[in-house]
Each structure stands twice: as structure tokens, then as C-alpha cells.
Specification:
Strand order of the largest sheet: 8-7-9-10-6-11
Helix content: 40-55%
Shape: globular
Radius of gyration: 23 Å
Structural class: alpha/beta
Number of strands: 11
Order of helices and strands: EHHEEHHEEHEHEHHHEEHEHEH
Number of helices: 12
Length: 329
């Protein structure tokens, strides 16, 4: 007869259990299929059944983490369940206790914005406690979105009087002049992703009003030269495409009562061959300086479509094996 182990987890009510299992048991099926356990609702709580102590231990950690999030007032979704399962399968169950962070007081079209991974939680906490934070890591880890949410929250709470969002227009020297329209129209394609995130956090009328009154400014990094940014929340996005000179210029703009967040992926620079990324240089020059926070995201922090995580993993794995990109006939 096959060995079976079981474990009981108390729940506060059937309603809590139903929310934990998801609509039509969607969350429950992910948990059972991924961790090879059975989950049953009993009169005295939830019972986990598995073939080993390790199996039900991982399942219990996942359920306890999700219950903790729910009891903190967070509405859990499918991505929360999948992330918790991935962490448990890696054996990093200690991280599950670190994923529950306070919600950022900004509503998006998808609901409350909050950290969803341990890396994101550390990032948000670093932004709260440091005047300058570098968020470095692959695409899909929420670096820019969370920084902008923190900026909007700071503006709404009156901690700053304006938000400035900037990014390099790396192709400006070659192609900008060929685009139709004035300078605003020419740089708009480079800045559009920042506007898209803002539209997710506030109504179009509110955003347009803020932009008209210069409460929110979205501009290429070249527009920062010669300015002192006081009482501002400043976000530099795609910083891997800033030159050393641009990075130094940007960082020395920071004025009184201001915060700055610099985000980027040092593996994806679009600078011309031979040009050193200002983000890589800043990482080397500023590491260890008091008051500056460096947060490093990994593929485990990817919160986009699960294919994004697999793509990041594939490129990372190839990088470990070598960089030959030739195609065989």
C-alpha cells in the first residue's frame, strides 16, 4: 500500500477556504497538480495529503502564505498562487514569508498595487527608506511600474510636489530628425511606455491636468541638464541606455526633499558598441555609499506572463554556456 502523509491547516470559515481555492477551484487545481498533493476541505479545516512529508510541507507553506496574504486584506490572484508554488518547488519556502508587503495606496485598473515577490517587497521598502534606489534586473519584474506607483502615492500624500519620469532616447542622434512633427512628437515613442503605466493608475483627465500644470513631467534624459529637482519624485527608466555622462548628470540633479529611482537591465543595453552603460558604471562607482540602495531582481521576480519567465531563463542559460549566436545551416 502506498505511503500517504497528511497535515491539517485551520481556516477561519468556509468562505475563507472558498476564496483560497479560487473560483471553480482554479487555485486549488494549480496547487494540487504542481506539488502532487490532494487538498480536502474538512469540518475542522483543510487537510493536505501527499506521498511524503516534503510534499505536504511545501503545500502547507504555500497555503499558509496565501492565507496570510488574505488575512492582511490582500485579494489573491492566480499569479500569486503560481508564484508561491514556484518558490515552494525551488525549496525557497522561507521566501514565502517575505512576499507579503503593504499595499501601495494607488489603485490601478486591476485593483490594489502591491509587491508580489520577495524581490519586489525589498524594492518597495528600499524606496521608502532611501533617497536614491537602483532597481536592476530582467524585464517583467515590475521595476518601473512599482517605482511609478510609489511616485504617484508620494504625490497624493503630499510628500512631493511633482513627478518627473525620464528615459534615454538612445537612437535620437540617428533617427529622431527623420520622424515627423515637433520635438514632442519625435520623442513620444520613447516615452509612451511611461504614459501607459500612468494611464493605468489614474484617469486620462487627471493625468492630462497634471501634465498641463507640470505636476507630472515625462521627458527624455537630455531635458534634465542644468536643472535642480527639488521636492520631486524622479524615475529614470531604461537606465542601461544612459551613457556615463548622462548618468552622472542625472544623479547630480537631485535636490532637497526629493527621491530618485533608477531602473534598468544591464544585460540589454542598446548603446553603440564600445560605449559603457552609465548604469553599469554607477553600479561600480556608487556601490557601498550610504543612503543609496541597490536592489537586484532575478528571473524569480518576473510577474508577467509565465512565458516571459521561461524566455528570461532560456537567455540566462545560454549566457552561462557561451555567447555564440550563430545559426547552423
Amino acid at each position: 500500500m502506498e505511503n500517504r502523509e497528511s497535515l491539517k491547516i485551520p481556516v477561519e470559515s468556509n468562505t475563507e477556504a472558498q476564496l483560497l481555492f479560487g473560483q471553480e477551484d482554479t487555485f486549488l487545481k494549480v496547487l494540487e497538480n504542481s506539488l502532487d498533493v490532494n487538498v480536502l476541505l474538512k469540518s475542522d479545516g483543510i487537510e493536505l495529503i501527499g506521498g511524503s512529508v516534503d510534499q505536504i510541507g511545501r503545500g502547507a507553506k504555500v497555503l499558509e502564505s496565501l492565507l496570510h496574504q488574505m488575512r492582511k486584506g490582500h485579494e489573491i490572484g492566480l499569479n500569486d498562487v503560481k508564484y508561491a508554488v514556484q518558490v515552494a518547488k525551488r525549496g525557497d519556502t522561507h521566501q514565502l514569508a517575505e512576499t507579503v508587503g503593504e499595499s501601495i495606496p494607488v489603485l490601478s485598473k486591476r485593483g490594489v498595487i502591491r509587491p508580489k515577490t520577495a524581490g519586489q517587497k525589498h524594492y518597495v521598502e528600499a524606496i521608502k527608506t532611501h533617497d536614491l534606489v537602483f532597481g536592476i534586473g530582467p524585464a517583467g519584474t515590475g521595476k518601473t511600474y512599482l517605482a511609478m506607483a510609489m511616485a504617484v502615492a508620494a504625490l497624493k500624500r503630499g510628500l512631493v510636489s511633482r513627478i518627473i519620469l525620464t528615459r534615454p532616447a538612445v537612437e535620437a542622434g540617428e533617427r529622431l530628425g527623420f520622424l515627423p512633427g515637433d520635438i514632442t512628437a519625435k520623442v513620444d515613442p520613447y516615452l509612451r511606455p511611461l504614459y501607459d503605466a500612468l494611464y493605468d493608475m489614474m484617469s486620462p483627465d487627471t493625468l492630462e491636468s497634471y501634465v498641463e500644470r507640470n505636476i507630472i513631467e515625462v521627458a527624455p534624459i537630455a531635458f534634465m541638464r542644468g536643472r535642480t529637482l527639488n521636492n520631486s519624485f524622479v524615475v529614470l527608466d531604461e537606465a542601461q541606455n544612459a551613457t556615463i555622462e548622462q548618468m552622472k548628470m542625472f544623479l547630480t540633479r537631485l535636490g532637497f526633499d526629493s527621491k530618485a529611482v533608477v531602473t534598468g537591465d544591464i544585460t540589454q543595453t542598446d548603446l553603440p558598441t564600445g560605449k559603457v552603460s552609465g548604469l553599469s558604471d554607477a553600479q561600480a562607482v556608487l556601490s557601498g555609499i550610504s543612503g543609496i540602495g541597490f536592489i537586484y531582481f532575478s528571473r524569480n521576480d518576473v510577474v508577467r506572463h509565465e512565458l516571459v519567465q521561461r524566455i528570461v531563463e532560456a537567455y540566462e542559460d545560454r549566457g552561462k554556456q557561451g555567447t555564440d549566436t550563430s545559426i547552423s545551416p
